[in-house]
Amino acid sequence: MRGTLSDRMGAALLMAPLLLFLILAYAWPFLGVVKWSFTLPTPGLEQYHALLTDDLVQSVFIRTLRIAAIVTVVSVTAAYAITVVWVRGSPTQRVLAEFCILVPFWISVLTRAFGWVALLSNRGLINTWLQSIGFISEPLTLVRNEFGVIVGMSHFLIPFAVFPLASAMRSLDERVLLAARGLGSSRMRTFWTVFVPMTRSGIIGSALITFVFSLGFFVTPAILGGGRSVMIAELIYLRIFQSPDWGLGAAISVVLVVFVGALMALLFRYVKPKQLV
Amino acid sequence: MPTYRPGPVSLILAVLVALFLLMPLLAVIPVSLTPSRMLTMPTGELSLRHYRSLIEDPRWLESILLSLRIGVVSSILSTALALTFSLGVWMFQPRFTAALVGFVLLPMVVPPVVSAVTLYFLLTSVSGLTSFFGYDTWLGVAMAHSVMTVPFATVLILVSLSQLDRRIDLAARGLGASVWERATRVIMPNIKFGIVTAALLSFVLSWEEIGVTLFITSVNAITLPRLMWMGLRDNIDPAIAALSVILIIITVLVLAVRSVAVKMRGGQ
To answer: Mind telling me how many Å the CA of B78 is from chain A's nearest CA?
Structure first.
């Protein structure tokens, strides 16, 4: 059935446009970026050497890993709490939880970052309110620092962390939970010793997705960090547009892709792609 | 039948997370009503001046029209490419399918900032060839958006194809239908919902795309997110709050309509 000449031609004709489009508009220019990293400003491994020795680049890498790790823990924990209700709650609770997950999910990253500026800035909702009740006299610095970045990124990533968790919780056999309860295990104990271990693949998938996403994050850190807590993606932007140093920007991009590729390979060793949606 | 329901502790935690998720969306409402020129909470009187400035300032309207044009063109392009590719995969099941699909999904997995640098490289290198396609042109942005949205469109169409019964295609084939007839008269009518969803998602992703757009535009192709970005970086313009409120209301309405539509489909 498969493999006749006309079949192969048909497949080739149908698949060719997209493959050609992506080769020309994506794969080829990516190789160009790789070339930049080895040739600008002078040919050689100079830029990769700079990555290992430059203090600024190093501190940005460390900050990015630290923020990504904190954001992952916060997002997965928060996502877990709301997913439990979304998957196992009463019908009304499910509808409400779904609304709270999907509405932010569909709203643009800019609007959401702006919402946090409106809440956290010096004249924002939180500071205005705390000052009006006399709790503080000077506004708290909640934005243009790492705190603001972590809050904004977690807010963005919680919905993404929800989907793998929901898929793990849905495929879980409810009778096991009822058996644990029936045998006299408390709610807490059933949750920690039966429910959580059975959703392990969802937790791993959700954590890796969140971590990978946070590594390459650009918009939220740029707005809520206010240039003070620069992450890798913003550093690439600055290297290309402000201190034209295309070679270094390209080299950081290449390293980022390799790192994310390695993490994805790890992800697919532990979880089947099906479990992620 | 007994069911395992979340207890009070779970519910309290979930409510806290829900509040956290909704808080920034609600916070823009009072800010949008401030009479002040700066980003502040309204004290006493409310004003609609920032909503008015959205209509009166031509920059907002221009960028909305530009974003609509780019969204429509890139959505048509990426849906068409995703559809032909997915039909090829489904109808012929070629060898190396997994590798080919993996390649197509790359722009979705690679960190967006790296895709942005890549597309910046592409558009600046073709900029010299023509004046209408390249860095900082609307066609360049539309093409770049298609690169970014085509993996999502492909996933949606492949998923709806995977739910299709192969036997109807086999029947058509047995009755002598050509590849073209099988594709257009048998398969596509059955995955209409998936195709429309793919086109809509591509449009929405392009409409709100900012990460790549920042790298490939400067002064000419100012899309709506790009204009918002400019207003957010410098002196924060409360008109953005007014715009955000409108975008949030549209999103909630669309989601409500969609959930009603899904219920009605399910009911039939």
So the answer is: 9
